[in-house]
């Protein structure tokens, strides 16, 4: 499988949490964050804002995506303002919260469909002296945890990396020694911190590293990390993702999962124990075995198209499971063609054929379908498909299948 696809597949095995949840976790570790209240219903907004001191309030849409400040709401009546707003009174804060709740926020990270705002975080506003960028992540090249820091905070870090890479400091931590104060000093000097801020930085970086390791995080991004008008460091925004495979040992974190933020097709697939990951392409794939799934995606790319998903129905899939898998693929409006590529070992080709036919009967078939079957009961499987009356393009092997589906889609 190509590296970008593999990374995309990998990224989706992470669990994200909301900013307010990440900040509660930061607070529990003693990291500096503002006081705040979460609001789920418009009626609660005034009480929530009133519980904070003022004179400045920040009202923040809680979605699993960044770029909220510069985002725009889709609906009329939500005004032109984005998903992070400053307010000068309790009333103003409550109004902003009401304006955002239930509406759809579109940011650079949500993509065109946007995300519905179901939770609002109202925070005590901070006076800002400087905004900086800080992140911890798992560096797959060195197999270590890396720090990334930059003076260019509050901005899109990809943009900084592209235009002024010299403004980004990045280094990894040797797991044998773990975090050491010199790591923190290196970041502090690079960010131009002075006096007491250096000490605060050394302590904060140690805290972040500790929680990153203890909680099996994949990524922790503080953008911006600020120096307040009082000269102290503070985490003004927080984005955290965790390794899903480690959630069994972090029930406290697992509880924070908000499935309404997740891809509905992936959620549906997980119910049926299907290994499904949504991607950006136009060819839906149904394959058995992760290796064959990767090979299928690669060969689709080789013939000039992009896979719409990664889907491994597993070794011992039932007819019901295959039906569900097919339904999930066809429910994706991006899918312009489907390639079923099955090597029947434990999995029998006739079971796959029956599953596909059952699914097509239920949901219909509006796009070309290429089926390549090989292995156990292949003759029976092919017969079931050819006598079904379905408009299926049969393929002899992987190459043939990929060529045919790309041709059917691209014309
Ligand atoms: P994002 O747009 O989703 O990354 O949301 P952030 O939490 O990073 O907020 C966006 C921007 O709003 C920040 O970069 C700040 O400039 C501003 N902002 C957020 N909180 C405060 C605050 O407490 N006080 C002030 N003055 N500005 C804030
Ligand atoms: Mn931010």
TrEMBL record:
Q: What is this protein called?
A: Succinate--CoA ligase [ADP-forming] subunit beta
Residue limits of the ATP-citrate synthase/succinyl-CoA ligase C-terminal domain?
286-405
Query: What does it catalyze?
Result: (S)-malate + ATP + CoA = (S)-malyl-CoA + ADP + phosphate; GTP + succinate + CoA = succinyl-CoA + GDP + phosphate; succinate + ATP + CoA = succinyl-CoA + ADP + phosphate
NCBIfam families noted in UniProt: PRK00696.1, sucCoAbeta
Q: Which residues bind Mg(2+)?
A: 223, 237
Which positions are annotated as binding substrate? 288, 345-347
The ATP-grasp fold succinyl-CoA synthetase-type domain extends over 16-226
Q: What is the lineage of its organism?
A: Bacteria, Pseudomonadati, Pseudomonadota, Alphaproteobacteria, Rhodobacterales
> Native species of this protein?
Roseovarius tolerans
Q: In its keyword annotation, does this UniProt entry include Metal-binding? A: yes
Give the residues the record marks as binding ATP: 60, 67-69, 123, 126, 131
Function in brief? Succinyl-CoA synthetase functions in the citric acid cycle (TCA), coupling the hydrolysis of succinyl-CoA to the synthesis of either ATP or GTP and thus represents the only step of substrate-level phosphorylation in the TCA. The beta subunit provides nucleotide specificity of the enzyme and binds the substrate succinate, while the binding sites for coenzyme A and phosphate are found in the alpha subunit.
């Amino acid at each position: 499988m190509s590296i970008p696809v593999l990374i995309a597949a990998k990224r989706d095995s992470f669990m994200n949490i909301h900013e307010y949840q990440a900040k509660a976790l930061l607070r529990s570790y003693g990291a500096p964050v503002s006081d705040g209240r979460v609001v789920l219903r418009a009626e609660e907004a005034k009480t929530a804002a009133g519980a904070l001191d003022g004179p400045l309030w920040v009202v923040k849409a809680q979605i699993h995506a960044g770029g909220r400040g510069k985002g725009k709401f889709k609906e009329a009546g939500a005004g032109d303002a984005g998903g992070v707003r400053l307010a000068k009174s309790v009333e103003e804060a409550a109004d902003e919260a009401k304006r955002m709740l239930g509406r759809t926020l579109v940011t650079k990270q949500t993509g065109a469909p946007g995300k519905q705002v179901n939770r609002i975080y109202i925070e005590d506003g901070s006076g800002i002296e400087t905004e900086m960028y800080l992140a911890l992540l798992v560096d797959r090249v060195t197999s270590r945890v890396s720090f990334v820091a930059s003076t260019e905070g509050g901005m899109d870090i990809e943009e900084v990396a592209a235009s002024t890479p010299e403004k980004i400091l990045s280094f990894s931590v040797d797991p044998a020694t773990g975090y050491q104060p010199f790591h923190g000093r290196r970041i502090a000097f690079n960010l131009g911190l002075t006096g007491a801020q250096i000490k605060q930085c050394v302590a904060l970086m140690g805290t972040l590293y500790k929680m990153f390791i203890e909680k099996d995080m994949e990524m922790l991004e503080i953008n911006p990390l600020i120096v307040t008008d009082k000269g102290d460091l503070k985490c003004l925004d927080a984005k955290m993702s965790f390794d899903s495979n480690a959630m069994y040992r972090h029930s406290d974190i697992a509880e924070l999962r908000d499935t309404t933020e997740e891809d509905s097709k992936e959620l549906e697939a997980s119910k049926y124990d299907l290994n499904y990951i949504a991607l950006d392409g136009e060819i839906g794939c149904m394959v058995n075995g992760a290796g064959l799934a990767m090979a299928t995606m690669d060969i689709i790319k080789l013939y000039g198209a992009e896979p719409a998903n990664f889907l491994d129905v597993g070794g011992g899939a039932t007819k019901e499971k295959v039906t569900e898998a097919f339904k999930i693929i066809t429910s994706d409006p991006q899918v312009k063609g489907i390639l079923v590529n099955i090597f029947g070992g434990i999995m029998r080709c006739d079971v796959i054929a029956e599953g596909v036919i059952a699914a097509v009967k239920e949901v219909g078939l509006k796009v070309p379908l290429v089926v390549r079957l090989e292995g156990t009961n292949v003759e029976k499987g092919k017969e079931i498909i050819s006598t079904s009356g379905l408009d299926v393009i049969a393929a002899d092997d992987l190459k043939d299948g990929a060529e045919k589906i790309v041709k059917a889609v691209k014309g």
